[in-house]
Amino acid sequence: MSRGSGATDLIWRDGKLVPWDDAQLHVMSHVVHYGSSIFEGIRAYKTPAGGAVFRLREHMRRFQDSAKIYRMPLKYSLDELCAAVTDTITANGLDHCYIRPLAVRAGQEMGVLPTNAPVETFVICWRWGAYLGHDALEEGVDVTVSSWRRAAPGTFPTMAKAGGNYLNSQLSKMEARGDGYVEGIMLDVHGHVSEGSGENLFVVRDGVLYTAPLSASILNGITRDAVVAIARDLGYEVKELLMPREFLLIADEIFFTGTAAEITPVRSIDKSPIGAGKRGPVTKAIQERFLAIATGQQPDTRGWLTPVPPAKRS
To answer: Which cofactor does it need (predicted)?
Structure first.
């Protein structure tokens, strides 16, 4: 990110707030050569009571889980990690932002084995708008089915949100953009629908919502989980299903879910319109309820919002 594209003043680095430009790593760091990092993507929303982070504890619990899977010892408890997030937002004077907790293998020893490489932990936050485009939340996006497959179970741990795992996503994303699409939908090794490069996927048919199970090499998405709960609150049935590629083409509606993507409709796949070729009524209802909860316009009955303390006045 360039200094002029939303960069903030301070980054949390192992317990200290440091200037943005000082949060650097050596070129010999293990992560630079071998992709040894884990991270999260979180959003804080502006509410009538001030800034609030959406599902902070669930995100930081997954951050801890990713670190355990990759045997990266973190120095901080769940409470300390959550406090690092809210403290960083407050220090930067933000009431809405995107948040990137990050842990990396640093050091200057070459070799695949990471155990001697120290782990450094960061929290970065910045202002960031709609991930898939300013008009995407209403108008939807045009996508393609990627030629790249999600990694098979037993190759990469898809439960971990790890930097190296996203090289696969980069290939899909670059292919889609090169072919004139906004995003690519990836299949798993068996040809079942998996997910986007950085989003989970829901298919709506005859009023029922379908989403891929974890066995289809998907990330266990926190926004995905929220959408399942919201959809059921609204009276919709939700099922996990191993979906063949052609199931996408007969969908009434399709939408992506994710922290960055939020709830983004898919209007076409490989130039074939989905439903009416625009955001459908089920997607709209779920999207509106999701955003109403996240922005404090709807009661937060599940405790999904963590308030951001206001900056202290000098």
So the answer is: pyridoxal 5'-phosphate
